[in-house]
Amino acid sequence: MNAADHGPEQGVSETAPLLGPGARHDNSDERPHTAKKTARNLLLLIAVVIVAVDFGSYLSYAPEIEIFETIICKRLHGFEKGTIAGQHGGSISACKSDDVQAELALLVGWMSFCNQVPGILLALPYGFAADRLGRKPVLLLSVIGLILEEAVIRFICWKSDIIPIQAIWATPLFQILGGGPQIATSMAFTMISDVFPLAQRSSVFFLLSAAILLGEILATPLSAFAMSWTPWFPFLAGVVFEIIGLVSAFALCETMPSQPDRPDHDDAPHQRTQTRSSGEHSKLSTTIMQFWPNFGKDR
User: Fold this and answer.
1) How far is it, in rounded angstroms, from Cα 7 to Cα 47?
2) Helix, coil or strand: residue 195
3) For the chain, does the N or the C end have fewer beta carbons within 10 angstroms?
């Protein structure tokens, strides 16, 4: 009997796979299509989340300034509308007087400063959390913290007769839950990096940035148009759009790469520690580099 009589059994050993190469690649043509479809769906959902939250922020920014100005004007002059004598003669709107504008600038300036502090202090902790717990939980926490902050600001403005307007300086404390808009932006771009190959990331980032910019362009005139009736309408509508973004974020799938299988070698603990450390530093550096893009308005 020659070797040809053995047929398929030739070369079979204890290390040979039970399934032949044909059986292992039956579904190989379907996997790339499924992966591309999943990546497109993820990009669409992330775009909805970011654009909705950013659109809500820009929609409510100008009304927020006007409401702050009205509250300060009422506190300093006792009325919201009317005129007062100007320094150089004539009359000016009471809310455009120097004392009102000076206090408004102080209020908005300190608010902008306080809004940046949580993102700076919490970038590293939430970067590590994203590599251990996942990107989606951190993104959800960030959006929830932003919505809570915006809701409390509106409550303070509504009850400004009993709550000093300076209380808004404490609202960035809600950004401790998730790290604020900088962390949310980093998580969104990190999730895209997880599912798109390197060759496609630049074009995908460009599309996402274009969608964000388009939302900002549309939000500004819509806000001005709505303010012709009352500034409170776009001021409250901004939170509604942010809630829409939060609901969309719940539909996102987790994109954190799975951990490699545990090695069986004698030096497994050392290799595992070294691999985990290098992977975490690589992912964390990506998160920190993406930390600075603007997400929503800067107060």
Assistant:
1) 56
2) helix
3) N
List the domain boundaries for the chain: 42-80+90-256+275-289
Among the listed residues 182, 139, 137, the one whose alpha carbon sits nearest the alpha carbon of residue 48: 139
* Token output for 288: 């920190």
pLDDT at 14: 65
CATH 1.20.1250.20 fits 42-80+90-256+275-289, yes or no: yes
Q: Are 234 and 222 in contact (CB under 8 A)?
A: yes
- Tokens (6 digits) for 242: 């942010």
Roughly what angle, to the nearest 10 degrees, separates helices 181-195 and 98-132?
40
Weakest mean pLDDT among 55-64, 82-91, 180-189, 211-220: 82-91
The mean pLDDT of 193-222, rounded to a whole number, is 92
Contact status, residue 114 vs residue 172, Cβ threshold 8 Å: yes
Helix, strand, or coil here: 92?
Answer: strand
Q: Which two tokens stand for residue 150?
A: 């915006």
pLDDT confidence band for 15 (50 / 70 / 90)? low
- Cβ neighbors of 211 (< 8 A, separation 6 or more) are 47, 50, 51
Question: Interhelix angle for 135-158 vs 98-132, to 10°?
Answer: 160
pLDDT tens-digit readout, 51-93 = 999 999 999 999 999 999 999 998 888 765 554 444 444 445 7
